[in-house]
Amino acid sequence: MRGVVRISEPSRRRIEMAAFASLPRECCGLLVGYPVISPSVIDGGEQAREIWVVDDIVESANVAPVEQPDRFEIDPALLLRMQRELRPTPMSVIGFYHSHPGGGVEPSSVDRDHAWQDGLIWLIAGCGGIEGGGGSRVCDLAAYLFDGAAGKFESLTLEVTSAAQKS
Questions:
Q1: Which whole-number Å values give the CA distances from 103 to 53, 82, 128, 137, 151, in the listed order?
Q2: CA separation for the pair 102, 23 (Å, rounded)
Q3: Maximal C-alpha separation, the chain
C-alpha cells in the first residue's frame, strides 16, 4: 500500500449513519481535505509516503436512478459548488465516499466501470448488517485510490483518529 487516508471518528460515524439512513440504496458524498507528502523509512531507506487528510465530509443526494439501488451518483451541482467554494482555501475535494448496502468494502464491478477521475480517494462503507457492541449496527470502511491509467483501485491504509487531525 502506497498511502494513508486519515479520517476522524466523527466523520467516519457520519458516513456510517448516512449509509444506514439510505438503505436499501447507496449513500454517497464528497471527501474534503488535503494531501500531504511525508517521509517514511522503509527497509533502511527514506521514501515519500502520501497521506490524504479528510477534514470534512459533505453528504450528497444519490441522484442515480431509483430503480438501480446498487449505484450511486454524486449530485453534479453539489460537486461544482464545493469545488468553487474550496478554490480560495487549501482544501479540495480529494475523493468520494459511498456505501455497499449488502456489505463488502471491495470496489464492485459497477464501481470499476463508473470510476472516471484519476487520483481520487474512494471510501467504501460496507454495511451488510454488521452488529457492533450492544447490538448497534456498524459499517466496515476501506480506502482506495483510483488509478485511471491502469483502470484499477489501489488499496490504501485507513487511519481513524479520535478527532480531526492535521498531518
A1: 25, 29, 4, 12, 23
A2: 10
A3: 53
Residue with cell 482544501: 91
Backbone Cα Rg of the chain? 16
Task: Give the separation between CA 89 and CA 126, rounded to whole angstroms.
Answer: 32
- The pTM for the full model equals 0.86
Give the torsion sign (CA, 22, 24, 30, 31): positive
Asked whether 137 and 130 are in contact (CB, 8 A), the reply is yes
Q: Span 142-149, mean pLDDT? A: 91
Q: Please name the helix (run of DSSP H) or strand (run of DSSP E) that holds residue 12, with its range, or none.
A: helix 9-21
What is the spatial distance between Cα 54 and Cα 104, in angstroms, rounded to a whole number?
Answer: 22
pLDDT in tens, 27-55: 999 999 999 876 655 555 555 568 999 99
Q: Which helix (H) or strand (E) holds 59?
A: strand 45-60
Give the pLDDT band (50/70/90) at residue 163.
confident
DSSP designation for 163: S
Domains of the chain, with CATH numbers?
A: 3-140+157-161 (3.40.140.10)
Residue 114's nearest CA partner among 83, 57, 153 is 153
